[in-house]
Amino acid sequence: MKKEINVGLLGAGVVGGGVLIVLEKNADDIAKKVGCPIKVSKILIKSLAETPEEFKGKYDFTENADDILNDPEIDIVIELMGREHPAKEYISQALSNKKSVITANKDVVAKYGAELFALAAENNVDFMFEAAVGGGIPIIRPLKNCLASNKITSILGIINGTTNYMLTKMSKENMSYGDALAEAQAKGYAESDPTADVGGLDAARKIAILASIGFNTRVDLDDVYVEGIDHLELCDIEYARDLGYAIKLLGVAKNHKDNGISAAVYPVMLPLEHPLAAINDVFNAIFVTGDAVGDAMFVGRGAGRLPTASAVCGDVIDVARNIIHNSTGRISCTCFEEKHLCALENIMAPCYMRLHVQDKPGVLAAIAAAFGAQGVSLKNVIQKEVLIKDSTAELVVITHDVSEYNLRMAIQTLKALPAVDEVCSVIRVENQVME
Ligand code: HSE
Questions:
Q1: Given ligand 1 and candidates 165, 202, 286, which is best to mutate, with the most ligand atoms within 8 Å of its CB?
Q2: Cβ neighbours of residue 111 closer than 8 Å, sequence gap 6 or more
Q3: Would you tell me which CATH number, out of the four given (3.40.50.300, 3.40.50.720, 3.90.1150.10, 3.40.30.10), belongs to the domain 5-136+305-324?
Q4: Which tens digit of pLDDT belongs to each residue from 109-154?
Q5: Any idea which architecture 148-301 has in CATH?
């Protein structure tokens, strides 16, 4: 029986510091849960001169990654440096040296997951990343363990806190896009480059990871169709609200019956009665549908020091138990299938469209005919008294289910109509309801 499990920590920033706090605060309980104490034996930081004040004198700090990666006494390496490099190289080195690795690094997992899993399997160690998606929300382990008997048919996720915060502010306080972004940045929610948040890339990395696990097939970042919220206008959010919808930036992964799988990130209009529509501010939520469990939703804090540390420390406990029971490497890569990607053009969903058109007789009929010519059936048409400019009207249309292909053809036809000044926005509608 081991006397203690030694951990090497790469990075003592916001999340790294959180891990130290949680492991220390709950050390007694954790030791009992594992069967022996967890000891953080070395911590990598950029410069010893910048050793965080709160941990000075309590831990052994180093500037040299090899002190951790090549230390035979260290059982587990926790990588919390962020960014792709050198995090990926350090993780590879640790796995090759037969150390289990825990990371919160979604960039690395989404891009190099396949390679790192193979390396972990080769060395019979664990590679865990619960904190990479949804911060403190348990979702990786539930997919890999608790829901493993299911065929997962869809995963819908609010998996970016920054954009959810912004959309909440825009919707509830009529705040402009720019003000909402500035506030999210000031509160420290946004990535260092906020275009990864508002442009959808951060969520794309996360949905690629979830889809790979949920559907047991490798989904690369390049397989994910990405649209952000940067083109959304306040009036779309207002229209959505009036029509009984909330607009959310969703990661959407679907296992289509006979048509492969799809993964995407885009703004979605969700009926207000959908459980995801009620997830506001910086909260994240992942709504999973499986053939046995039905619908299940996981909600919580998707970022932040202690919530993310909670997920990392959960992995530490799991890996430590595996080490003690000689069962590391038990759950490796679950991508044992090669499912094909469903072409975006074939995906069916209803759609919201806002247009500026000339306000004169026959225009509505011409627009309805343009939709009809592409086989698009309309569900609602609204013309509000909005002053755009003289003799211009704003029309809002919601369609029945339409394939992306037919939708694009309809947009082309509409744009060619002399009576249509502009197709201002197109937003997909999610009509899946809780069962
Ligand atoms: N910028 C991310 C978010 C943080 O807003 O959710 C966690 O990945």
A1: 202
A2: 84, 88, 221
A3: 3.40.50.720
A4: 999 999 999 999 999 999 999 999 999 999 999 999 999 999 999 9
A5: 2-Layer Sandwich (3.30)
Q: Long-range contacts made by residues 290-295, C-beta under 8 angstroms, separation at least 24?
A: 290/147, 290/150, 290/151, 290/152, 290/153, 291/150, 291/151, 291/153, 292/149, 292/150, 293/147, 293/150, 294/435, 295/434, 295/435
Tens-place pLDDT, residues 186-202: 988 887 789 999 999 99
Determine whether the shortest distance from the Cβ of 183 to ligand 1 is under 6 A. Answer: no
Nearest alpha carbon, ligand 1 atom 7: 303
Residues in the chain with pLDDT < 50?
none
Q: What's the 210 CA to ligand 1 centre distance in angstroms?
A: 15
Ligand 1 atom 8, closest CA: 303
Topology of 344-429 in CATH? Alpha-Beta Plaits (3.30.70)
Q: pTM higher than 0.70, yes or no? A: yes
- Per-residue pLDDT, 344: 82
In angstroms, what CA-CA distances link 198 with 106, 152, 290, 423? 17, 28, 29, 22
- Give the largest CA-CA distance in the chain: 85
151 catalytic? Reply is no
Number of the ligand 1 atom closest to the C-alpha atom of 189: 5
Q: Active-site residue among 88, 206, 248, 254?
A: 206
Rounded to the nearest whole angstrom, what is the distance from the C-alpha of residue 206 to the centroid of ligand 1? Answer: 10
Question: CA 280 to CA 282: how far, in whole Å?
Answer: 6
Q: Domain residues of the chain, as ranges?
A: 5-136+305-324, 148-301, 344-429
